[in-house]
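Step 1: inspect the first sequence and its tokens.
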Amino acid sequence: MDEFALEPARAQAPMAGAPFHVWVFPDSTPWTEFHRSGRNYLLRFPELADFEVARDGRTVRAWPAPGVTEETVRHLYLNQVLPLAQSRQGKIVFHASAVEVGGAALAFAGESGRGKSTLAASFAVSGARFLTDDGLLLEPRGAEWLVRPSHPSIRLWEDSQEALIVAGTPTAPPVSYTSKARFLAGERVRFCSEPRRLHRMYFLGAGAAGAPRIAPLRPAEALIELVGHSFLLDIEEREQLAAHFDELSRLAAAPIYFRLDFPRRYAELAGVRAAIEAHARAEGVTA
């Protein structure tokens, strides 16, 4: 059971030492600082909040910076902190979205801005259902892997909203650090609340293709991609890193990984969905 406690706001006092890891924006501005706090971890989002994560990842406490809304802190927890905490529990979590097609899960992994959420939303407003728009959590089931559904919402930039979302679709309250809107699942944005077998994972290209292009990956190529798209809180703990790598090596051995590239034009999305569904159908899913 994951426990989350929201504490009273407090100023972000200077840390005693340098972080052991930092996530940065493209302009090198720090986004998340990873610190050790005794046996636990402290994740600092500058000017937003501090999160203390227990060593086993099962308990998280949050202190908002003064003036930061509760909704902002909960949004950070769900989308940034929880996947990292789950990694401390030995769970496999990726920067990826997933949708249900034909009773199985198709996942889309890629760097920020490559269209993970847009693809998931495109399916979810066109008859399919989404499982997650990021923080893809996998659990083993025999020789297969299950995709666990996450929070029933999808975050989209304004241009994707205008292209995909019908006016009046329910949204969560806005947060202070992003202009993305979070659209809640319902009749207009369909959500799958049950685990689904992972059938295929597509790693998104940069958008150089003039038409949808899908190519298989060898296990060694898939392993590199899986490592690069993993959520990991402690990148210095060798024992956990070794266990994580072993799990990914087992996962990469399955013949389910493909490179997917397509033109980044909203008018092309119906064709992209059709190409993905046809590929999945040919590979054993009935769309």
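Step 2: inspect the second sequence and its tokens, then contrast the two.
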Amino acid sequence: MRDMRTLDHLQDGLDAEMGWRVKEISTFIMAAKTDGAEKKVYIRAGIALMYAHWEGFVKNSSEMYLNFVHHRGLTYRELKTCFAVFGLKGKLELLAASRKSGPNIAAFDFIVSELGERAQMKMASAINTGSNLTSAVFSNIAASLDIDLDRYSTKFNLIDESLVARRNQVAHGEHVELKAQDFNDLAQEVLQLMRDYKVDVLNAASMKGYLREDRAA
């Protein structure tokens, strides 16, 4: 992934990330409309592919946004807490896990002293989908980036039951029965979810949604 040093870089990255995924899903939408025994194969494969693109897009676009925030050159104190956590997570985890006063004091002192330093986002495994991007996992990722969930809440059942559950059935070799029109409808819903997330990421970046409220003015 290239560095997202400007808003244009982020937009170009998101456009490219979305573009090839739309093409692949569209290919399976067309294939599912064909006649013949292979239609069911296309639909089963299409469900797995659709889920892979849902998970991949959310993960990669979220990491692009984090990369963009990283390159703002801001201090931890200037960032909203949810973003500062990405850089201080290791020390915070030590505080939560350790029962010894020495390591706890050292970790706390480190955190306090680092607040005025330039934030260093830990990109490795920053966004963890757990290879199972349910609505709960998605909500956690969105919340970690301070992205509002209102527009997605009505689609949680679709994510969990229509997409993730069916993908798991396909992955486990179970029978999945889905008509071509229903597959098309599901694909359109998933694509719209991805488009919505792309818009929300771009809006958050352009509106400087990563800044603490007292720094955003």
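Step 3: confirm your contrast with the notes below.
The first helix runs from residue 7 to 31. The radius of gyration is 20 Å.
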